[in-house]
Design a protein that fits this description.
The complex is a heterodimer of chains A (409) and B (394).
Chain A (H helix, E strand, L loop, with lengths): L1 H19 L6 E4 L18 E4 L4 E16 L2 E2 L3 E16 L2 E10 L4 E14 L2 E9 L21 H6 L5 E13 L2 E10 L35 E10 L3 E11 L4 E2 L2 E2 L5 E12 L6 E11 L12 E18 L2 E16 L15 E14 L2 E12 L8 E13 L1
Antiparallel strand pairs in A: 1-2, 2-3, 3-4, 3-5, 3-21, 5-6, 6-7, 7-8, 8-9, 9-10, 10-11, 11-12, 12-15, 13-14, 15-16, 16-17, 17-18, 18-19, 19-20, 20-21
Chain B lengths: L1 H15 L23 H14 L12 E2 L4 H4 L12 E4 L20 E2 L14 E4 L7 H5 L3 H7 L15 E3 L13 E2 L2 E4 L10 H13 L22 H13 L11 H12 L10 E2 L12 E2 L7 E3 L17 E3 L28 H6 L6 H8 L3 H13 L1
Helix pairs in contact in B: 2-7, 6-7, 8-11
Classes of the chains: A mainly beta (409), B alpha+beta (394).
Chain lengths: 409, 394
């Protein structure tokens, strides 16, 4: 026993000694203006990180927490405090043109832990970069550029989390590149990766739900259909106009063969997305929008509960109203903002009646945000949302407030 | 600095204040919610039942392989009437001797199938009927109306000469239903009181059938997989079935709206005058119930729980239990005014949803209801409107 206590004391002393030798000046913050105008595909490179002196390693991350009180049809679960995300970035410049980047995310405490991104990037030419590992499928803009501190709203857009799978990552391989010419930037990304599975039309959400595929941890090891998912995106930015992105993701999602035996028809999923962002000159209004269209091959003998067409999107409008020293913070910014959202999970008509299928949602979310620095944001949001069930019955109204902070560290 | 502090405090108070949120819909606009008088333990079971009713089944949790809906709430949105999307199709029985197509998928068509499977087809030669899912509110009160009360309302030989007879549907008891000690039997059969034909004995029977026939979910009460016809492990826990039964038992009754409105009151009188009340009884009383909140309660369901000849126009050549093909159990009218809120803004009335308005539904009545229908047709337009307004207030 004495030996054990001595050992513990010795270890404690030793660890104190070790920590005392860490020189804070060794950690150098590589400042990044995370609101700067670069292509969305650059988001993973455009993060504030701490460089460890004379090592090729950089670390960083972001954290977000909030208070929330929502009601649906006037019924509330009461006040909630939420620690939504704690995300750690770690990257390493293996050589001048070989880099490793990773992103590890803890959601709602430790409820959901995932490697969102972990890839090796090898540059052969600015237009030809090879990427392999766990990649973020670049469908739309949000999937590429989703760090909490970049947004003026606590909630992620519904169309990016409940229609498209936000931060949908898979094991895969592909190419990306960029080209600059005067005011123009052009970028592309193409990947083959793991992808969706039967859960997109067989899930407890009771609707065609692409994010259900995120629940399958096997996707990092095995492609359910045995056929890779293709994702491609083209983006073009003019420094005076803004950035337009066009993306497509598609492939076979179901397990149509097993052990060499064909057990089902091949069924495909196709996703097409458009995104655009711009900052209006003079008044500096920032506008970002994304809209997606989805087509899923659902067996006719299944149920129309699971739709074969979906669409939805959002638009964020952010207007800085004060940009000055506020409460001692230099270059602090106070914004007012508003997000409009629409999602239809089941576009079509009932076979039985010919009437329109519901399963849709509208939401408007005014907000006030305060940025003491470009990397930290306080957000106060109010949501007013109407959601109809599949029959198009009178919508359930959800409304409420949340207030939170999101910051890089 | 002080101003900022006060602003923050004011904001916090505002956001926390209930009045800054959208108001709760009024009680009479909703069908869900528990009956008054439940104990804390009973309320907890009610809430567990509510969760179970909303559970969506998947292949992993036992759905199918063939099915009609994926959850209870699929057929009863907001606990209200169903939509043609989830209308059930029953087939294979033409008289009281039983279903001739049980070995060919009867009595219910599972018209949907998991990917990789094929749904059922109605066998050649089988007659069928479509059943629009009913509202599921306050079924517990109907459950505990005593058999004596039901039989007292029956008039098999039309002894009172009003053209309305009314008989119970005598059915064989499922192996797991336990009748109350005061249950009345006839030739070993019991009174059925749930379903369009009154062919389900109690809410346990109804719930087990719904799990099995609507969703393909086996339970300890019915462990036969209807796709393979093999006994398999239960796919829903017995405790969950019990919770659902308790939930159905203790859902509150729809609350009548505008009952003091003069036109509604006039309509109520007309409803009585043209003898709609002959079948749609305005007042029933429960007997003893093991759930205290349901014992000896008077309520207004507008049904007599009896079968009536509804005429050849509503004869689908399909039946259940001892009912004739032209006989239908009087459906409760309570909650009918809220049907549009669960049927997508439309009305799908009568057993198969063929009527798109209350007036159309009245005009589809035949058989024992012919006199009342004729009387309705002879009313002035203003009186018709009053009657319809009364029905929509229920």
């Amino acid at each position: 026993m004495k030996l054990r206590i001595s050992f513990v004391v010795a270890m404690a002393f030793l660890s104190c000694g070790l920590s005392a030798q860490i020189d804070p000046s060794l950690l150098k913050r590589a400042q990044k203006d995370t609101l700067a105008q670069v292509l969305n595909m650059d988001a993973i490179y455009n993060r504030p990180v701490l460089n460890i002196n004379k090592t090729p390693i950089a670390i960083g991350g972001y954290f977000e927490a909030n208070w929330q009180k929502l009601t649906t049809e006037g019924v509330s679960e009461g006040h909630q405090f939420q620690a939504r995300r704690f995300t750690i970035f770690m990257s390493s410049a293996i050589s001048k043109r070989v880099k490793f980047l990773s992103e590890l995310e803890f959601e709602d405490g430790t409820k959901e832990i995932s490697i969102e991104f972990a890839s090796v990037d090898v540059e052969f030419h600015p237009l030809v970069n090879f990427r392999a590992g766990i990649i973020l499928n670049p469908i739309g803009a949000f999937n590429q550029n989703h760090d909490g501190p970049k947004w003026e709203f606590t909630d992620r857009p519904i169309s990016t989390t409940q229609l498209l799978p936000a931060t949908f990552s898979n094991s895969g391989v592909g190419l990306f590149g960029k080209k600059y010419h005067k005011n123009w930037m052009f970028g592309y990304e193409v990947y083959f990766s793991g992808g969706f599975d039967n859960s997109i039309i067989e899930n407890s959400e009771n609707k065609t739900f692409l994010p259900a595929a995120k629940e399958n941890p096997e996707r990092f090891e095995e492609i359910n259909s045995g056929e890779p998912l293709f994702t491609g995106k083209l983006a073009v930015r003019n420094s005076k106009i803004g950035e337009l992105g066009i993306s497509y993701m598609g492939g076979i999602y179901n397990k149509f063969q097993d052990d060499g035996i064909i057990i089902d028809d091949k069924r495909s999923v196709h996703v097409f997305a458009l995104d655009f962002n711009t900052t209006l000159p003079k008044i500096k209004t920032f506008i970002t929008t994304e809209f997606a269209w989805i087509a899923v091959d659902v067996p006719e003998t299944y149920t129309q509960q699971f739709g074969n067409k979906q669409h939805g999107g959002f638009i964020d409008i952010v207007q800085p109203i004060l940009s000055q020293t506020i409460l001692g913070w230099e270059k602090a910014v106070l914004n007012v903002a508003c997000r409009l959202e629409y999602v239809d999970w089941n576009v079509g008509t009932f076979n039985e009646t010919g009437g329109s299928i519901g399963e849709d949602l509208w939401s408007v979310m005014p907000a006030v945000s305060f940025r003491p620095t470009s990397q930290t944001v306080f957000r106060l949001n109010y949501r007013f949302q109407k959601q109809r069930d599949i029959f198009g019955n009178p919508p359930a109204i959800t409304d409420g407030f949340n207030f939170g902070i999101s910051t890089y560290f | 600095m002080k101003i900022h502090f006060y602003l923050i405090i004011m904001c916090m108070v505002f956001f926390s204040c209930e009045s800054s949120y959208v108001a709760v819909p009024s009680e009479d606009e909703l069908l869900d919610g528990p009956v008054d008088g439940l104990s804390s333990a009973e309320l907890q079971q009610f809430l567990r039942g509510d969760v179970a009713v909303n559970e969506v089944f998947t292949r992993q949790t036992g759905l199918g392989s063939t099915f009609v809906g994926t959850s209870c709430i699929n057929c009863h949105a907001g606990d209200g009437k169903g939509h043609p999307f989830t209308t059930l199709i029953r087939f294979g029985q033409v008289d009281e001797t039983g279903n001739l197509f049980l070995n060919q998928g009867g009595p219910q068509l599972q018209n949907r199938a998991l990917p990789g499977y094929l749904p059922e087809q109605i066998p050649l030669g089988a007659t069928f009927s479509k059943f629009t899912p009913p509202a599921i509110t306050r079924l517990g009160f109907l459950q505990y109306v005593s058999d004596t009360t039901i039989i007292a309302m029956s008039d098999p030989n039309d002894a009172d000469g009003d053209g309305i007879s009314g008989v119970p549907n005598w059915i064989n008891l499922s192996g797991y239903s336990i009748p109350l000690s005061n249950a009345i039997t006839e030739n070993g059969k019991y009174i059925g009181r749930f379903g369009k034909k009154g062919a389900a004995f109690d809410l346990l029977h109804q719930t087990v059938n719904a799990y099995h026939q609507d969703m393909g979910i086996t339970s300890i009460f019915n462990p036969i997989d209807h796709y393979s016809n093999l006994e398999i492990d239960p796919e829903v826990a017995t405790s969950k079935v019990n919770d659902v039964v308790f939930y159905l038992n203790t859902l509150k009754a729809p609350i009548q709206r505008n009952q003091n409105d003069a036109e509604v009151m006039q309509g109520r009188n007309l409803f009585e005058q043209i003898n709609c009340i002959g079948c749609h009884k305005a007042q029933l009383t429960t007997g003893y119930s093991p759930i205290n909140a349901l014992s000896f309660k008077t309520f207004a369901p507008y049904t007599d729980l009896l079968l009536h000849d509804m005429g050849s126009g509503l004869d689908d050549s399909y039946t259940e239990g001892s009912a004739k093909t032209y006989e239908w159990k009087t459906p409760p009218l309570w909650g009918i005014g809220l049907s549009e809120n669960s049927q997508g803004g439309n009305l799908f009335l009568m057993h198969d949803g063929r009527a798109s308005s209350v007036e159309q539904a009245i005009l589809l009545h035949g058989g024992e209801a012919t006199n009342s229908k004729n009387a309705f047709q002879n009313l002035s337009q203003s009186k018709k409107n009053a009657l319809l307004k009364f029905i929509k207030s229920l």
